[in-house]
C-alpha cells in the first residue's frame, strides 16, 4: 500500500507567520525575535521601555519582515487588551506567542523580602503570563504555538529568590494545565526551561555571577526556533537547555 501523505506542518516554514513576543527588547526575548525574523516571521514586539523598544523595532526591520513595536505593561489587563486588539487589527490572527516578560528581585531571604518586591515579581511573571495568554487565545488557531519562558527556577529552587522561584513554579503549573486544555484544539504549548543564560537579569539576581560559564541568548533562541519547526504531529512539551558547565 502506498504511504499516506501527510499535510504540511503548520510552522515548519515560519515565513509570513505572525509572532507576538513580550519583553522583546533585550536578552532571550530579543534573541528569539531576531531568530524568528531571520526565518521570515512577522513580529509584534512589546516592552515597557519605549526608546529601547523603538530601537529594537528598527534593528529587526533589516530582516525585511513586518515589525510592530507596541508598549505594553503585561501586568495591566487594559493594556494587554489594547495590545491584542492591535494585533488583530494589523494581522488578523496570531501563529506564535512567546511569553518572555519577566523580572527578578535582589537576593533576600523570606524574612527580609519586602512584600512590595514579592507582589511585583508575581504580578509580572505569573499574572502577566496569564493575562497575555488569555487575551491571545481567541486569535490562535490549530497549528499555532505558545512558548512560555520559565527558567530552570521552575524546577529547582535557589535560596534568596523566593518570589522568583514561586512565580516560575506557578508558571510551570499554568503552562502544563494550558497544554492539556489546548490539546484538542491543536495548539502546542512549550515550556522553555533554560539554565543560566547571560542576560541582564543577573544584574539583579547575582551581580557577581560567572557569566563566562553561561549560555548565550542566541543559543536558547536556536533551540526555541527548532522546537517550533517540529512537524505538527509532534511537540517539544518541555524544552530544557542547560550550560555544559553545569551548576554555577
Q: Can you lay out the helices and strands and say which pair or pack?
A:
Layout lengths: L17 E4 L5 H12 L3 E6 L2 H11 L6 E5 L5 H15 L4 E4 L15 H22 L8 E5 L12 H21 L5 E7 L7 H4 L11 H12 L9 E4 L7
Parallel strand pairs: 1-2, 1-4, 2-3, 4-5, 5-6, 6-7
Helix pairs in contact: 1-7, 3-4, 4-5
What does this molecule look like?
This protein is of the alpha/beta class. The chain has a single domain (18-241), classed as NAD(P)-binding Rossmann-like Domain (Rossmann fold). It is built from seven helices and seven strands, in the order βαβαβαβαβαβααβ. A seven-stranded parallel beta sheet has the order 3-2-1-4-5-6-7, with helices on both faces. The model is unreliable at 1-9 (pLDDT under 50).
Concise summary:
It is built from seven helices and seven strands. With 248 residues, the chain is of the alpha/beta class.
Give structural attributes.
14% strand; 7 helices; 248 residues; alpha/beta; disordered N terminus; Rossmann fold
- CATH-scheme architecture: 3-Layer(aba) Sandwich
Q: Major sheet: size, sense and barrel closure? A: 7 strands, parallel
Compute the number of helices.
Answer: 7
Indicate the low-confidence ranges by residue numbers.
Answer: 1-9
Radius of gyration: 18 Å
Q: What is the fourth-level CATH superfamily?
A: NAD(P)-binding Rossmann-like Domain
Count of domains: 1
Q: Which structural category do the helix and sheet elements fall into?
A: alpha/beta
CATH class: Alpha Beta
Amino acid at each position: 500500500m502506498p504511504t499516506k501523505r501527510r499535510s504540511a506542518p503548520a510552522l515548519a516554514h515560519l515565513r509570513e507567520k505572525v509572532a507576538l513576543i513580550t519583553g522583546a527588547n533585550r536578552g532571550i526575548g530579543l534573541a528569539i525575535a531576531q531568530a524568528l525574523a531571520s526565518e521570515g516571521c512577522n513580529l509584534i514586539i512589546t516592552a515597557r521601555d519605549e526608546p529601547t523598544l523603538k530601537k529594537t523595532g528598527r534593528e529587526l526591520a533589516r530582516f525585511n519582515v513586518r515589525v510592530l513595536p507596541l508598549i505594553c505593561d503585561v501586568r495591566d489587563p487594559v493594556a494587554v487588551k489594547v495590545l491584542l486588539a492591535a494585533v488583530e487589527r494589523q494581522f488578523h490572527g496570531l501563529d506564535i506567542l512567546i511569553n518572555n516578560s519577566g523580572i527578578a528581585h535582589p537576593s533576600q531571604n523570606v524574612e527580609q523580602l519586602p512584600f512590595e518586591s514579592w507582589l511585583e515579581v508575581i504580578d509580572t511573571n505569573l499574572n502577566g503570563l496569564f493575562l497575555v495568554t488569555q487575551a491571545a487565545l481567541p486569535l490562535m488557531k490549530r497549528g499555532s504555538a505558545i512558548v512560555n519562558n520559565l527558567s530552570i527556577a521552575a524546577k529547582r529552587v535557589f535560596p534568596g529568590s523566593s518570589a522568583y522561584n514561586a512565580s516560575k513554579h506557578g508558571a510551570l503549573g499554568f503552562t502544563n494545565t494550558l497544554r492539556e486544555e489546548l490539546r484538542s484544539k491543536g495548539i502546542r504549548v512549550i515550556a522553555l526551561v533554560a539554565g543560566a543564560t547571560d542576560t541582564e537579569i543577573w544584574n539583579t539576581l547575582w551581580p557577581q555571577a560567572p557569566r563566562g560559564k553561561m549560555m548565550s541568548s542566541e543559543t536558547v533562541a536556536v533551540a526555541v526556533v527548532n522546537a517550533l519547526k517540529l512537524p505538527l504531529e509532534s511537540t517539544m512539551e518541555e524544552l530544557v537547555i542547560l550550560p555544559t558547565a553545569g551548576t554555577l
